[in-house]
Amino acid sequence: MPSVSEILETMDYGPAPEATGEVAKWLSARGAFGHYIGGRFTEAGETFDVANPATGELLARVTQGTGADVQAAVKAARAALPGWSKLPGHDRARHLYALARHIQKRERFLAVLETLDNGKPIRETRDIDVPLAARHFYHHAGWAEMLEDEFPGRGPVGVCGQIIPWNFPLLMLAWKIAPALAAGNTVVLKPAEYTPLTALAFAEICAEVGLPKGVVNIVTGDGATGAALVAAEVDKIAFTGSTEVGRAIRKATAGSGKKLTLELGGKSPFVVFADADIDGAVEGVVDAIWFNQGQVCCAGSRILVQEGVAREFTERLAARMAKLRVGDPLDKSTDMGAIVDPVQLRRIRDLVARGEAEGAVLHQAECRLPAKGSFFAPGFFTDVAPANIVSEVEIFGPVATLTTFRTPEEAVELANNTRYGLAASIWSENINLALDVASRVRAGVVWVNATNVFDAAAGFGGYRESGFGREGGREGLGEYLADAKIKAKADPAPPPPETAPLREAPGVADPIDRTAKLYVGGAQKRPDSGYSYAVRGKAGVIGLAGLGNRKDIRNAVEAAHKAAGWGKATGHNRAQVLYYLAENLAARAAEFAARLKSAGGPKPAEEVAAAIRRAFWYAAQADKFDGAVHSTKSAHVTLAMPEPFGVMGIVCPTGAPLLGFVSLVLPAIAMGNRVVAVPSQAMPLAATDLYQVFDTSDLPGGVVNIVTGPRDELARTLAAHDDVAAIWYSGDADGTRMVEEESAGNLKVTWSVAHRDWSGPEGQGRSFLTRATQVKNIWVPYGE
Predict the structure, then answer these.
(1) Which one of 160, 206, 297, 652 is the catalytic residue?
(2) How far does Cα 646 stand from its chain's mean position?
(3) Could you name the CATH architecture of 549-633+642-773?
(4) Count of other CB atoms within 10 angstroms of residue 346
(5) Which of 144, 237, 359, 482 has the fewest CB atoms nearer than 10 Å to its CB?
(6) CATH 1.10.10.10 at 21-263, yes or no
(7) What CA–CA distance (Å, rounded) separates 630 from 633?
């Protein structure tokens, strides 16, 4: 054993292991685990082994869930739903408070169990994961207390199926169960097969606090169990995991009516400017990539460093990496623990080897790894080509890439050069520069001079192929509440387009109709097909509409992307354009009423009047719908900023051809989106006539694009288009299923808009504005 003087000379850490006796007794006493269904543990069935990733030693045997097990759990949750959802919010809050207190009471036990099960250092489970899990239950107990006041008219979704990953087993459980219970839902949760033990310990806590039977159910198993839960008769699926599995879930739930939240993979940028605190940024990399073995979906695995400090940063990063301690995760002096499973370790090794083979240079710590267990030395790549696999694919291990940039514009371009959009970290002492870049990075969470900071009061979730929906905070709670009920009306099925060559349809006198043009990029354009279709009213053919196709949609999407300046305009400027649009529509009210009358629509004058009122209402909302400042951790101000999606596809109802169009397109553009709209197939002329209103209202070209033609064919093209970020569809059940299936390609946000009385309050509201935006949470240093 070294002497004190020798230790002071070398400054080496001595061993500081955490005792595991209580956890070992708990595991031994329980033997093989069954599921937790209906308030009790079932007998163990066919089991699989759960091993300690740091040693390979067996920890427990856990039951492999079957379809029957999932059905039993869903049945128990369904039976418990009426009683739990009807409990006063105060009573639900007291249950959540009790869960939070019991997590705190068993804090050390849960931290040790999590480290044994997952392999992450005890410092992380003890200081971050378990306290934050308790925080989620405390925070959402407050929401349960305030629910009726803060979310009037909204109730629980119902039975929620929840599937969580292995990187934050207990925290992800709390992240999902707490808001679900606060909102009055019941839950069936499937933990990851690698890390089910803290979920089973939590089940015991549910029994201890007297949570009503069936409110929380936990079924263990592998991906087949998760697939059974997705297919079960639940009302919502909340999934955190890989993008590939999320895409499969999107397809599997298409047309089912199940509410869906997906928190998926990431390839997050970690942007370091020349004026940054270099040592602070280096420690940020350590926190983001190495302390948690890189097993975090929002880890800043793409380090982007400004050229002027690249050499200094790289040298300091390499020096800091060399000092990291990799080893026993139960040792309080360990920086990096074990990779969760040999399967994941092999994947990391394979990706790193492929990255080197494709020309990247690996800088890796020369540390002595334990002889047993799944360990990987920390490292980072330089000389990484954009097409290198390690630049594009989420490694999910303690390895990052390091690339240089020259200007802020290049930094933003590199940061956004990914199909993901989960998180980003910006480092600069110039707060103006940092916030400017934060506003332009396409990510759901942005940290300024920090990384991997979480709190129950702030939403978390991604853009693009990192999924949709939010976890945490007010936004996350809203995902567990059903929309206010509307009185849905049957939307008449559109007749098949009766096509005719341009200029050859009989009985058409209006020269504007005879051209049968689309409206793309602020101008009338002939359809690519060269054909129109006859639009019929009471007295026969009343006009022609262009027969749009895939190429027309492509052109419209390109035009919409070119109008990106609309999203950068202030809300006030957008409001002025919409007010002008409303005035111009009012000036031509008689013309639009006559058009609707010729189509045989009911109450045409009333529909036009309602459309005018709607235009004024969304003009008023354009600069009133704003974000929030969340109360999170000290020394931070957390900004929740609603941002437009970008380019949206909107497929309008058949009925209410003018009012339905206005009611969907205007909230989208009021929030800064650009739109490719498919108007009523039966009566598109009410929408195409608007081009003159748009042109005289100073609406920039490309903000609204109109493509007429067969509704579902055009909807399919919009849903499959990778450059369309969201789609609203008003049509039948088959069309809804098709749109949701096709949207899985780039995981765009979808909304199936039920036909309704568009003239009433159900035809407008802030819910339309909410659905036209996605929330970015920006963490900014604030105070001491």
Answers:
(1) 297
(2) 15
(3) 3-Layer(aba) Sandwich (3.40)
(4) 12
(5) 359
(6) no
(7) 9
Q: Nearest-5° angle of CA 22, CA 24, CA 28?
A: 120
Give the burial class of 57: count Cβ atoms within 10 A of its Cβ; 0-12 exposed, 13-18 middle, 19 or more buried: exposed
Strands (E) located in 398-553: 399-405, 423-427, 445-448, 467-468, 498-501, 518-520, 523-525, 531-537, 540-546
Q: Per-residue pLDDT tens for 49-65?
A: 999 999 999 999 999 99
Quote the CA–CA distance of 370 and 364 in Å, as a whole number.
16
Residues of the chain with CATH 3.40.605.10: 21-263, 549-633+642-773
Check pLDDT > 70 for residue 40: yes
Query: Is the distance from CB of 739 to CB of 715 less than 8 angstroms?
Result: yes
Considering the entire predicted model, what is its pTM? 0.93
Residues β-bridged to residue 649: 676, 727
Q: How far apart are CA 357 and CA 300, in angstroms?
A: 23
Known catalytic residue at 263: yes
| SS3 state at 752 | strand
534 exposure class (CB count in 10 Å sphere: 0-12, 13-18, 19+):
buried
Q: What is the b/e burial string over 95-108, where b = at least 16 CB atoms within 10 angstroms of the residue's CB? A: bbbbbbebbbebbb
Residues of the chain with CATH 3.40.309.10: 269-461
Kindly report, residue by residue over 512-551, the tens digit of the pLDDT.
Answer: 344 578 999 999 999 988 888 888 887 788 888 999 999 9
Q: What are phi and psi of 600, to 5 degrees?
A: 85, 20
Do 100 and 141 contact (CB within 8 A), yes or no? yes
Tokens at 373, concatenated = 């267990």
- Amino acid type, 307: E
Phi, psi torsion values for 92, nearest 5 degrees: -65, -40
The count of C-alpha atoms lying within 13 angstroms of the C-alpha of 530, restricted to the half-sphere facing its C-beta, is 1
Count of beta carbons in the 10 Å neighbourhood of residue 32:
12
Active site residue 471: no
Give how far Cα 592 sits from Cα of 601, 674, 682, 696, Å: 11, 24, 16, 16
CA atoms lying within 13 Å on the CB side of residue 466: 27
pLDDT tens across 69-114, in order?
999 999 999 999 999 999 999 999 999 999 999 999 999 999 999 9
What backbone torsions phi and psi does residue 253 show, to the nearest 5 degrees? Answer: -95, 0
Nearest-angstrom CA–CA distance, 627 and 625:
7
Active-site entry in 124, 193, 263, 465: 263
Top-level CATH class of 269-461?
alpha beta
What whole-number distance in Å separates Cα of residue 701 and Cα of residue 695? Answer: 8
